[in-house]
Each structure stands twice: as C-alpha cells, then as structure tokens.
C-alpha cells in the first residue's frame, strides 16, 4: 500500500514540472522568436507481483502481474514551428521564412543561434564602423562566420544605418549616388540549419547552443542540399505559443496533479483504517 504513496508522489512531481513548462510558455507569449515547449513523460520501473506460470489445472497463464512505480519527465521539447510575422518599423528587424537560424558570437567567443531577428547597428570604434548586433550587443555573423561590420564610408559617402537595406537572401545593400541599392561585398547575413533542431541546448536570451543531439550546424550558403530560407526585412517572428492550447494544457495538468494528490489521501485513509483494525 505504501507503493501507491510513492507512485502518486512521482505523478505530482512530474505534473509540477509540466505546470512550470506551461507557465514559461505563457510568460514568453510575446517574446520574439520564442518556441513553445512541451513536456514528455515516461513510466518508471515495473514491479513483478506474479510471473507467467500455470493454473491449478496445469494450463499456461500467458500474462503475468506487474504494477508500475510511477512516472517521470523524459524531456522538454521545443516545437520549431514558425510563429506569426509581426510588422516592425525598424529597418534592422528581420524574420526568417524557413528553417534557418541567425548566428551570433557570444561574449565567451562561442557561436550561438537564434530566431530572434531584432537587431541594431552599433558604433563600435573611432573609425565609425557599424556592427550589426542583437539587443544584447552580440555581433551577428555573416555567411563566413565573421561579424558583420560596415565601414564608416562607402563610395565616398558616410554610412547612415537606416539607409541600409537587406534583400531576401540576406545581402546588405547601400544606395549609390543615384540612390540605387548596391550590394556590399562580403556582407550577407548567415543562416544556419540543423538536422535535429530539437536537440539544441537552450541557453536563455532566445539563444541556442550546438549539442551532439542537434548535429553540426549546416551553412545554407555552402550547402546546396538545403532548402534556402528567406529573410523578410521589416518583420519579426513572434512567439508560436498558442494561448488557448496552453490554457487547456494547464487545466489538464492541474487535474492530473489533483488526482495524484487524491491518491495519496486515499492511501492515507486506507492505512488509517487498517491501523484501527487492531482496536
């Protein structure tokens, strides 16, 4: 009978983690590039009460008797479906139509990946160079894995950040003397894909890191076997969290938590009844 106490306790712990995950989804409903997360569960070990044996008449019993010992969280999986595109007034707002990721260089020198295209140009040095970076100041990388740094002047003109445009392939362009956009050599926003994006490690700040489960990053510019993504300037990819679905999931998790709690109180009542039999 004590077995049911521990089994129900594992259910309460698992559902608490489930509620935590749902709460995090709802908290990030307006976070640019956020991907909703779902809990996956698996059963624990089974205890054999009776093995396959024979009846009193000597007939084989094909099924034994096993009782489960509870549940645990197997994984929390990110769902990389595309969120809705939100129009932005910023010229350095970018949304990805496809499976690609932007890449940025972290303060530790490692490369991280994100779907959050809310970028800005930062003035980094006395030469007037402009560096494309995310909201935390991390430089955005080009197709060669190098920071995108615009020179202070192009064709004798001083560069003005809000005049830079980006085409669907990620090529940065700046208008010439006739106000016709011209490509800037080597300035193409890099896009990366993964064989298993769900295996990426979540680092916070909408950043992901490569793991053995995700596989090595695949550069769209150099890998012809990939379906190319498209960059949309003037848009941001919103969160793909569906509030209605999350509210339903929250109700289901709450009821499951209550059921496991009821199993504990029921077991306690049964133990109390059994303890009173000796009186």
What would you note in describing this structure?
This protein is an alpha+beta fold and 279 residues long. It folds into 2 domains: 86 residues, no CATH class; 153 residues, no CATH class. Helix content is 22%, strand content 32%. It contains 2 helices and 22 strands. The strands form 9 sheets. Strands 8-7-17-20 form a 4-stranded antiparallel β-sheet, with no helix packed on it. A 3-stranded antiparallel β-sheet has the order 9-10-11, with no helix packed on it. Strands 14-15-16 form a 3-stranded antiparallel β-sheet, with no helix packed on it. Strand 15 and strand 16 form a beta hairpin.
Q: What ranges have pLDDT less than 50 throughout 5 or more consecutive residues?
A: none
Order of helices and strands: HEEEEEEEEEEEEEEEEEEEEEEH
Instruction: Please tell me how large the radius of gyration is.
Output: 28 Å
Mean residue pLDDT: 89
Shape: elongated
Query: Number of helix segments?
Result: 2
Q: Which percent range describes the beta-strand content?
A: 25-35%
- What share of residues is helical? 10-25%
Please tally the β strands and state the result: 22
For the largest sheet, list the strands in their spatial order: 8-7-17-20
Biggest sheet overview = 4 strands, antiparallel
Class per helix and strand makeup? alpha+beta
**Terminal Cα span:** 20 Å
Question: How many domains make up the coordinates?
Answer: 2
Write the layout of secondary structure elements.
Elements: H1 2-27, E1 37-43, E2 46-50, E3 65-68, E4 71-78, E5 85-87, E6 94-97, E7 101-105, E8 111-114, E9 120-123, E10 130-133, E11 149-150, E12 153-154, E13 157-158, E14 165-166, E15 171-175, E16 181-188, E17 191-193, E18 201-204, E19 207-209, E20 218-219, E21 230-233, E22 235-237, H2 243-276
Antiparallel strand pairs: 1-4, 2-3, 5-22, 6-21, 7-8, 7-17, 9-10, 10-11, 12-13, 14-15, 15-16, 17-20, 18-19
């Amino acid at each position: 009978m004590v077995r049911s106490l521990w089994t129900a306790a594992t259910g309460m712990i698992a559902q608490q983690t489930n509620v935590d995950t749902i709460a995090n989804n709802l908290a990030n409903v307006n976070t640019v590039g956020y991907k909703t997360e779902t809990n996956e569960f698996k059963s624990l070990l089974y205890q054999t009460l009776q093995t396959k044996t024979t009846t009193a008449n000597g007939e084989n019993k094909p099924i034994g008797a096993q009782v489960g010992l509870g549940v645990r969280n197997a994984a929390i999986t990110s769902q990389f479906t595309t969120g809705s595109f939100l129009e932005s007034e910023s010229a350095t707002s970018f949304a990805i139509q496809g499976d690609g990721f932007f890449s940025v260089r972290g303060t530790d020198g490692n490369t991280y990946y994100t779907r959050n295209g809310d970028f800005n140009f930062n003035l980094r040095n006395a030469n007037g160079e402009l560096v494309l970076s995310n909201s935390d100041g991390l430089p955005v990388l080009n197709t060669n894995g190098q920071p995108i740094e615009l020179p202070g002047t192009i064709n004798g003109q001083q560069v003005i950040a809000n005049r830079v445009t980006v085409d669907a392939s990620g090529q940065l362009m700046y208008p010439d003397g006739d106000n016709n956009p011209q490509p800037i050599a080597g300035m193409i926003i890099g896009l990366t894909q993964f064989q298993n994006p769900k295996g990426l490690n979540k680092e916070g700040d909408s950043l992901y890191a490569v793991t053995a489960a995700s596989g090595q990053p695949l550069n769209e510019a150099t890998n012809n076997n990939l379906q190319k993504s498209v960059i949309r300037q003037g848009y941001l990819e919103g969160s793909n969290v569906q509030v209605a679905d999350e509210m339903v999931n929250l109700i289901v998790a709450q009821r499951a938590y209550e059921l496991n709690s009821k199993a504990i109180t029921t077991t306690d009542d049964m133990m109390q009844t059994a303890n009173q039999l000796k009186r």
